[in-house]
Each structure stands twice: as structure tokens, then as C-alpha cells.
Amino acid sequence: MIARGALKLSEKDNVATLLEDAAPGTEVLIRLGKETGTVNAGESIPFGFKIAVTDIAKDAAIIKYGETIGIASRDIKQGEMVHIHNLEGARGRGDLMKGDAK
Amino acid sequence: MNFTGYPRPDGSAGIRNYVLVIPWGFLPARICDFVDGTKTILTPDSGSGRTSRDRETIARTLIGLGRNPNVASVIIHTLSPGAGYPELKPARLAEEIARSGKRVEILDVAKEGSTLRALEKGVQLAREMVLEASRLRRQPFDLSNLAVGVKCGHSDTTSGIAGNPVIGNLFDRIVASGGTAFFGETTEIIGAEHVLAKHGINEDVSRRILEAAAAIETIAKATGEDIRTVNPVPSNIAGGISSLEEKSLGAIHKSGSAPIQDVLKYGERPEGKGLYFVDNWMSMGSIFAGYAASGAQLVIFQLGGGGLVGNDLLHTSTAVVSPLLWTTANPKTLAMAPTSVDFYDGTVIEGKDTIEEAGGKLLQLVLDIASGTMTKVETLRHTDPTQIYLRDPCF
After folding, report:
1. Residue B227 and residue A47: Cβ atoms within 8 Å?
2. Dist. CA B326–CA B298, nearest whole Å
3. Residues B242, A3: C-beta atoms closer than 8 Å
């Protein structure tokens, strides 16, 4: 088996983790077990970073390991990199507690 | 699957054979300068000005290190600033360590008449105890006599895909053979606690896993800060991790699939064997000493490292008496730190090994190291100070 492209860890995932650097326009092989598909990288995405395997609407859950890793802070197109610029963590957010009962 | 270790009076097996001098201070520092084969815990946490809860944590850590199977015998001196508190009285520490059947000596500075006279006495005593320890010979022990603790550090996205799952496989193998495995880092189960809680051996353990995560999240929120500016740490984000939830969901893979027997406090010794969750802090400078105090003879540092910017990696063991084994699944980290990484499992990502195959190879290395082979960073004398995991304000 040639380990290239990007890895999905659960069927529910809407992102995959790059196992090699992807240049813009590259066809990235998306692997989940033995199943494969392809997504065109919309931009330069380095090794270890995440690529959206579907369009993800603003405020929708971003799923990896079959679990929620955060919320889309804006609309994300298939093939875009998903990272802190378009994903908001929801847990441990003391900054969101400001203005709460004090 | 055996290793050879030093037999201790309580039936446990040391994979190293040290004389421990505690608590930290002038006397242990100088004794360790003079006498080979000795160790001390380098820490400013003496207990002075600390609450009883925190003093008990310090005592638990010192007692646990003394009882660690890698320790042949222990010297306790009376010159520590915390020695007057009931929890930290030298006689109390000595009594609890001596329950393991080990030789424990108290170096009483008042009795010797001066610090320098006590130093002379301590050096001679340590030399005698090191000689005594050196007469022991390794014997075969099975894997049920081994306890291992893990921290995943500088996590990146290779950690959750390969590095941590391989540790999980190692843990499954150790636990299936009757051994003991510790994992923890409570902040880094936030977002994954519901997954982990399913592994509790009973409802009580599952509930306490959820409570540990809820307690630390409450404290985090009370700071008013966005946790993402604290943890994931900057090197995690540079390595591709986007949120604490993502880090946590990758981190929990290092625990494997065995049932979690209990939730332990920092430095607490388990009542039985198997897999344990320790409610501790992720810091390199804190977590490993806690595992050693819980009884781990070996500690593992599972690195991502994708976000690291230099090759000056020199994290040595802060577990005081237990060697530190480095693993990574990131080829860039291996290339950056070949003189520190003991085991590379990026082969899983490259499709050359399955997680099971890599776990089997790692177990062989663990058995070698348990039998006396040094880890790469064990060859270094440098160690950073230990920060004992204290939870209360100081006064």
C-alpha cells in the first residue's frame, strides 16, 4: 500500500490529515481504510495539516476521529485548509465567559 | 516476555539501581556530586508556606520516589525548609518508605553538629549504600512487574494518527501481560472525556474521569482566557493542531483499549495493576516525576515535534529515578533529533508497519531498556528541575 495523500480517521470526518505537502490544484488521495477518493487541494497545505473533504458551512461542526474538534468560523470550501483561521475550538473558552454572572 | 531487573524486598523489580537522597537541598546536591550511583529530586517545592493538601502531595511524591523499584535504598536529611511540617517530617517519610523493606537512613544535621559534618557523614553513608546496591544482580522478571508512564509532547497531527496509537498498542500488551500503565494530562482530555469515560472499569471510574475534566475546564474558564492561547501550545498549532478538542481526541489514543482501573492523584500509587488515568498536568517538568512516584520504572515521551523549530532537543528524564524513552512518528522530528529519539514509528504513516507491528517492536525495545540498555537521553547528566503538581495558592 502506498501511503500518500491524506487520511480520514472515521467515516463521519469532514476533514482529512495530509501525509505529504500538497501544492494548490494537486489531486489529493483521501484514504479511509481501504476506501479512497480524491479532492483537489484549493491552496498549499503542508504535511500534517487538514484539508476539507466536503464543503463545510459556517457554524457547522468540523469532524475528525468521528468527533467534533471545533466549529467552522466561516464557510469552508472542499479542498481548503482547515486550521485556526477557519476553525474555532469550543471548549475551555474563558474568553466567552466574560460578561457572565460575576 | 521477560526482562532482567534488580529484586527488591517487596517483590518488585528495579530496572535501575540507585541510592536516592531527599528532599532537594545543599546536602543531596553535594552528596550526588561526590558519589556515583546516587539521585536526588531537583525541586524548589519544599512545602514551606504550602497548604496541607499541597504538603501531602510533596510527601506522596518523595515517598513514592523512595518506594520506586529503581531505588535500592534512601537517605533522608533533616535540613529541608519543609521538614517541620507533620506531613514532611523525615521520620514520617522514612517510615513510609521503609514499609517496602528498603534500607532508609536519616541524616540528622543537628546530631552531626554542623552542615559540613553532616555532609561528610552523608557522603560516606551514600558510598556505603551504593557499594551495597552494587552487589545485587539482575534476575528474570515477567512483564507483570513492569510499570510504564507516558506523556505525549510537542503534539502534532502525527501524534493522533500514529505516535499515540502505537503507545496505546504497547499499553494494551503490557496490561494484557499483567503489567501497569499510566497516562494522564487532564487538560488534554477536554473534548475527548466522553470517549475516555467509556473505558472506565465501572461507573464510578467513568464518573470520576468526567469530573476530573470538568474540574479543570471550570478552572480554565475562570481565568477569562481563551484556552487556545494556552493549550494547544504554540508548537501544537504550528504542527497542524487547531483546537484543544483535536489535541485531546488524538492524545487519548495513547491509553489503548484496556479498561481504566482508577483515577489516581499525582504521585499516588495504584492498589492493583492495569491501566490507570492520573489526574495530572502535562508539563515535562512535572508529569514524569509523578509517574515515577506512582511506581513507573520507565517513562515514555511520545513526540509529535512538527512545530519545533530547532535541533536543540535536550529533554532528559525529569522522573528522577526512571529513564526516559523518546518515540516519534514524525520523520521531521526524527531527522531533527536523531541523538534523542529511541524509537521511530512514522513507518505506520509510511505504510511499512501496522500499528500492531510497531507496538510489538516498541515492546521489544522496552524490554531491552528494562534489562539495562540505556535510553539515548539517559546518557546525559543534565536534568531540569521538577515542579511538583501543587494545586493551592502559596502563603
Report:
1. no
2. 11
3. no
Residue A97, C-alpha cell as written in the block = 465567559
- pTM of structure: 0.93
Q: Cβ contacts of residue A39 below 8 Å, gap of 6+?
A: A6, A16, A27, A28, A30, A51, A52, A53, A78, A79
Contact B222, B229 (CB under 8 A): no
Q: Which helix (H) or strand (E) holds B260?
A: strand B260-265
Helix, strand and coil content of chain A, in percent to the nearest 5, comes to 5, 40, 55
Q: Which of A50, A69, A88 sits opposite B249 (nearest CB)?
A: A69
ipTM for this prediction: 0.91
Q: Cell numbers of B98, please?
A: 521503609
Give one DSSP letter per residue of B267-306, joined into a string: TPPPSSSEEEEEE----HHHHHHHHHHHT-SEEEEEE--T
Gap from A26 CA to chain B (nearest CA, Å): 19
Question: Which of A4, A8, A93 would you mutate first to test chain B, the one with the most B CBs within 10 A?
Answer: A93
Residue of B157, B190, B243, B248 to mutate, interface with A, max A Cβ within 10 Å = B243
Contacts of A94 in chain B (CB under 8 A): 220-227
Bridging pattern class, strands B324-328 and B343-344: parallel
Q: Which residues of A touch B228 (CB under 8 A)?
A: 84, 89, 93
pLDDT tens for chain B, 395 residues long, are 899 999 999 999 999 999 999 999 999 999 999 999 999 999 999 999 999 999 999 999 999 999 999 999 999 999 999 999 999 999 999 999 999 999 999 999 999 999 999 999 999 999 999 999 999 999 999 999 999 999 998 888 889 999 999 999 999 999 999 999 999 999 999 999 999 999 999 999 999 999 999 999 999 888 888 877 788 888 889 889 999 999 999 999 999 999 999 999 999 999 999 999 999 999 989 999 999 999 999 999 999 987 666 655 678 888 999 999 999 999 989 998 899 999 999 999 888 999 999 999 999 999 999 999 999 999 998 888 999 999 999 99
Interface of A with B (CB under 8 A): 1-3, 7, 9, 17, 19, 46-50, 64-65, 67-70, 82-84, 87-98
Option in B161, B246, B351 nearest A1 (CB): B351
